[in-house]
Amino acid sequence: MEGRQNTIVDESAPVVSDLNTRRDRSILFLSCSGGLVIAGTYIAALMWASIIMSDPMHHTWGTWGARIFIPLSMMMAAALLGSLAVLRKGRPQTADGTPRAAMTSWLIFAALVAAHTGFAFLYLGQGPAPKIDTFTFQRDASNSLLHGIDPFGGTQANIFDAFHTPLFYGPGMVIDGRVQVGFQYPPLTLAWVLPSYLLGDVRYSYIFAVIISGLFIFLICPTARGLWVVAALFFSPVTVLVEFLCWTEPMILMMLGMSIYAAVKKKWWMPIALGLFLATKQYNVLALPLIGLLIRPFNWKAYWKLTAQSLGVAALTVLPFAIWNFRGLWHDLVLFHLAQPFRTDAVSFAVPFPWFLKVGPLLVIAFIAAAVMLARRTPAMFAAAYGVTLLLFVSTNKQAFTNYYFLIGNVLLLAVAALPRVEKTSNQTRA
Q: Is 150 left (phi over 0), alpha (psi -120 to 50) or beta?
């Protein structure tokens, strides 16, 4: 018909561009948000070290408030930017089917892996193992399991002196020099670190987890954007610190990366990947309401099916130890954490403003509700919404430290990598 034009798109030669044809503000917002969290984390880590080395029990907001103000300001700005990215209205971009990465990109990725691996092992080899319970708990639990001893429900040697013990453990948690907990992490963590324990150091597993996280990021987005996100993960000084101190968050990032990769390219993996992700840490229960963001178009039947399948996979990772000693498992994974003391050295808004302990859960619930109703239903928005939810949860909680913010910052950058790319075609004709 005259006056009417039909556009025929030749899809045989797509030219992929991240931002050239149409800017997606979510990329900018999430990039800035993740960068702020990672930068604030590094400042917070320096502040935390200075407090721990001095008198940790007599530091109040008045004595070190100036030092915590900067990272908290960064976290607040990150939460606002991340919320804008998740909740803003915009046309969904559909650019599935990313092309295979060029050999050059793979060579760059391999060089990034080699550089990070070498630096991480060099850092781990500098001096003795860290004096931190995250390391000793995982090392001793691995040893117990290999000798047929249930790692849950027992006790651990207290490695801290009388000066620092009240900071890390609440009243009644340490009796006769023994911490009244067997293993405070889910069983999947123990399964992950066991091979590295046999190789001589449980921390090797977290170097490997960071590398696998980078691989999933690159597979999701095999372009310059993906390589920049991988480089940010590999070469942040916070990453090596987390590996050295044997914090478990790299494993959570790895499982989330696998979940996002599954949602983008291997949908039949999703129940398994999501189940393993949920099984890595207790606070991942916050992600359950957000699973609906992975379902497009949304329907309740699909949501409940995917949620039930994922929870079933997660339950299977816990079941053997629950049968072995359910009471000990429940004590170590739930009751022990509920009894943890309020930390005055935490990078949390609850330190200067204790009322945040009550307001924080309301903020989390409100954001989750808004994200479920308003966010675009894409894997990237699932990751971004989880990152912002965790940021609101941690920054208003009684314990908020480097490992949590490491995870949050890199989850937001993972969302940047997972945002659909704009495609423009080179051969467009009009008929």
A: beta
H or E segment at 422?
strand 422-430
Counting Cα atoms < 13 Å in the Cβ hemisphere of 153 gives 13
Question: Measured between alpha carbons, how far is 89 from 63 in angstroms, rounded to an integer?
Answer: 43
Q: Give CA–CA dist 287/263, Å, rounded.
A: 15
DSSP secondary structure string for all residues of 54-89: S-GGG--HHHHHHHHHHHHHHHHHHHHHHHHHHH--
- CB-based contacts of 274, cutoff 8 Å, min separation 6: 259, 262, 291, 306, 310, 313
Distance CA 386, CA 288 (A): 9
Instruction: Write the pLDDT tens digit of every residue in 318-363.
Output: 999 999 999 999 999 999 998 888 888 888 999 889 999 999 999 9
Q: What are phi and psi of 307, to 5 degrees?
A: -65, -45
User: For residue 427, what is the enclosing H or E element?
Assistant: strand 422-430
- Continuous segment of H or E residues that includes residue 250: helix 249-265
Contacts of 179 (CB under 8 A, 6+ apart): 133, 155, 156, 157, 158, 169, 173
Q: Which residues contact 138 (CB under 8 A, 6 or more apart)?
A: 183, 185, 189, 190, 193, 197, 202, 246, 248
- The string of pLDDT tens digits covering residues 196-221 is 999 999 999 999 999 999 999 999 99
Q: What CA–CA distance (Å, rounded) separates 172 from 180?
A: 8
Residue 52: which pLDDT band, with cuts at 50, 70 and 90?
A: low
Q: Decide: residue 97, CB within 10 A, 0-12 exposed, 13-18 middle, 19+ buried.
A: exposed
Q: Helical H runs in 165-245?
A: 165-168, 187-199, 204-220, 224-235, 237-244
% of the chain beyond a pLDDT of 70: 84
Say what the pTM is: 0.88
CA distance 188 to 171: 29
Q: How far apart are CA 159 and CA 221, in angstroms?
A: 43
CB 124 within 8 A of CB 208: no
Residue type, 204: Y
Query: What is the pLDDT averaged over residues 291-309?
Result: 93
Q: What is the DSSP letter of 154?
A: S
Dist. CA 44–CA 406, nearest whole Å: 11
- Sign, Cα dihedral of 255, 259, 262, 264: negative
Quick check: 118 pLDDT over 50? yes
Give residue for tokens 């969290």: 37
How many angstroms separate the CA atoms of 135 and 130, rounded? 7
